[in-house]
Specification:
This protein is α/β, with parallel strands linked by helices and 151 residues long. The chain contains 7 helices and 7 strands. It has a single domain, classed as Rossmann fold (3-Layer(aba) Sandwich). Strands 4-3-2-5-6 form a 5-stranded parallel beta sheet, with helices on both faces. A two-stranded antiparallel sheet has the order 1-7. β3, α3 and β4 form a beta-alpha-beta unit. One of its GO terms (biological process) is methylglyoxal biosynthetic process.
Length: 151
């Protein structure tokens, strides 16, 4: 597929997702990065979003719970170019009932070339990057050209 570019704005749209066993770790990370996070637009799956908003006071647009379709809602926003990066503290050691949704979410993030942190170390690297506060051009699939070639 051909590529095109999209401009990520300086004020990023950031998805925050965590499996149950990693919600306390994400809360700790969000609390530590609250000052930077409040300069961006935040989204989360339902349970995670409500917990983070309640505990930190951050404005977070919460989807429905991940197992109920929240992972797919975040994936749809990524596909629409409405999410610029994702912090997803997932649990690789415990299977979750909605594992196909989780894999689809990670896959769609890769397809649309957005930065994804799946653990604290990677999240810290992303959040210390000077690119976090800048406009950034990223390559994405040229879906319009793909459709035009099909007709």
């Amino acid at each position: 597929m051909h590529k095109t570019t999209r401009v990520m704005p300086a004020h990023k749209h950031i998805a925050l997702v965590a499996h149950d066993h990693h919600k306390p770790e994400l809360l700790r990370w969000v609390t530590e990065n609250k000052e930077k996070l409040q300069r961006h637009f935040l989204y989360a799956t339902g349970t995670t979003g409500h917990m983070l908003s309640k505990e930190t006071g951050l404005a977070i647009r919460s989807m429905i719970s991940g197992p109920m379709g929240g992972d797919q809602q975040i994936g749809a926003l990524i596909s629409e170019g409405k999410i610029d990066m994702m912090i997803f503290f997932w649990d690789p050691l415990n299977a979750v009932p909605h594992d196909p949704d989780v894999k689809a979410l990670l896959r769609i993030a890769s397809v649309w070339n957005i930065p994804v942190a799946t653990n604290r170390a990677t999240a810290n690297f992303i959040f210390t990057s000077e690119l976090l506060e800048q406009e950034v051009d990223i390559e994405i699939p040229d879906y319009d050209a793909y459709l035009a070639a099909r007709t």
